[in-house]
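Give me the fold.
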Amino acid sequence: MKVDVIVGGTPSEVGAAARDAEEVGLDGVFVAETSHDPFLPLVPAALSTQRVQVGTSIAVAFARTPMAVAVLANDLQLCSEGRFVLGLGSQIAAHVTKRFSMPWSKPAARMREFVLAMRAVWAAWNEGTPLDFRGDFYAHTLMTPVFNPGPNPFGMPKVFLAGVGARMTEVAGEVADGFFVHPFTTEQYMREETLPAVQRGLDSAGRARSTLEVSYPVFVVTGRDDAELAENAQPVKQQLAFYASTPAYVGVLEKHGWGDAHPVLHALSKQGEWKRMADVFDDEMLNAFAVVGEPAAIGVEVQRRYGDLADRVTPAMPYEPAGDVRRDVLDAIRAAAVGPSY
């Protein structure tokens, strides 16, 4: 099992974080598309490291065109000497149409076509295949020599997709190299809903499970004593309660018999009562979504729950633990996954 981190900030800050991640033996450094561009910080991350994979987790696909992303990804594959992972997600209709002023329709079908269109562009560059992609959402039929960078010596970038619903998850199994599981996922939901959807996609394309990496973002609640554990549980509960207030994620709650919590949390979210929402998300629910315990115990529990489910894990701690607790957690997860190596 590989162990990754998501980092943020300015390009220089991401570059420094990537160096630190490589030094402590982690496997991947990913940047999310939030308040900064997700691609630009990966340039210093790639140039300041030699081993770790660098990638987006995620970049909003529908804010861009397949051609634009194909160019970006190809350049980052060159810059990282073959270590770039293009992680894409759909976002939601309101952000795509109102924030990015881009079209929205049939997100799963559109994402499938987006990936296929990019691969058609890369094939034109790497294999000399005439560019003639014509789909329902995208058409790329012109590639003149001045815009053709030629074959990439490191090959085509890996493409990971993020998804929540069954259809997008199936698309990942069909056309992607990896799948980012949504953070609002329990072990039970992953076993009974997510992975079967991935397998349906793999089966439709005649692919083996070994051809796709599954990445699981693991919420971690930890601390050096009971007081720190209780304090650090609150921001995790608040984040999970926010997800639980969203209609798209009701199915996960219902899988556990917690569907009644959704309308309560949804109403509180409309009122901006974020702290009260965390109180509704009780300890039983927290333990289903997060690994809770002292730093040294986290690694064994992550491996027990997800060792047979995920190929990579990304510990998520939406708080700043005291002292070296964050490093201790990463050490424990890495040691449980592959044994001490640094």
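The chain has 14 helices and twelve strands.
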